[in-house]
Amino acid sequence: GDSVTQMEGPVTLSEEAFLTINCTYTATGYPSLFWYVQYPGEGLQLLLKATKADDKGSNKGFEATYRKETTSFHLEKGSVQVSDSAVYFCALSGNNQGGKLIFGQGTELSVKP
Amino acid sequence: DSGVTQTPKHLITATGQRVTLRCSPRSGDLSVYWYQQSLDQGLQFLIQYYNGEERAKGNILERFSAQQFPDLHSELNLSSLELGDSALYFCASSVEQERTEAFFGQGTRLTVV
Questions:
Q1: What are phi and psi of B94, to 5 degrees?
Q2: Which of A7, A9, A48, B31 has the largest count of CB atoms under 10 Å?
Q3: If contacts are CB pairs under 8 Å, which of residues 18-47 in chain A contact chain B?
Q4: End-to-end alpha-carbon separation of chain A, Å?
């Protein structure tokens, strides 16, 4: 079945450092790919999405490119802030899946001043 | 604010009891999804409804059931509760059925004692 694998956390960075969180997926066909963010005590918020190969999703300085050849959707940000501290989830929504999201295990990011 | 409303925010109940979690989707969204988030299982898809009909089922226990009403709000019923059912339960909604982003509520934190 479809699945998503994320790099394990926690990831600890200093403010203004470069962030990469790796995400790879297994799916038949052409799924849509998403990154969600969960701040402490809150629900999941959609951060960005990509619906076809080579699409780049971007929002709030975060970017991720849908790479069909490597089945990856890595999240990047050039300069993280303390306010980016949260748990990040990579997810996919596959063909003929009824719209359900399949999530990776989540990566906790902690940014220190 | 995602536009998805869940009540209650917190629920503490005893083993063996039954509870009902409620979700109001975003205006115009026909699909409602329920997810369970626990430390050991991560985010697990439970069930999806689309315009009142069940569309997909995930890892939902037989003790759990859900429904979507004509006004599109949904309820998740959990019965014969066990300690292991303690988790964060999220509702999400989306416009489409396939390959689309979903918007999440703040969740209901269920504690079974």
A1: -150, 160
A2: B31
A3: 31-32, 34, 36, 42-46
A4: 41
Range 45-74 of A in CB contact (< 8 A) with B: 45-46, 49, 51
Cα dihedral: A70, B35, B92, A38 (round 10): -70
Distance CA B17, CA B59 (A): 21
- A68 CB contacts (<8 Å, ≥6 apart)? A30, A53, A54
Nearest residue in A to B94, CA atom? A99
pLDDT at B99: 73
Question: Which is nearest to B97 in space by CA: B37, B54, B58?
Answer: B54
Residue type, B68: Q
Closest partner residue to A99 among B42, B100, B105, by Cβ? B100
Residue A30: per-residue pLDDT:
87
Q: Which of A33, A35, A34 is nearest to A53 (CA)?
A: A33
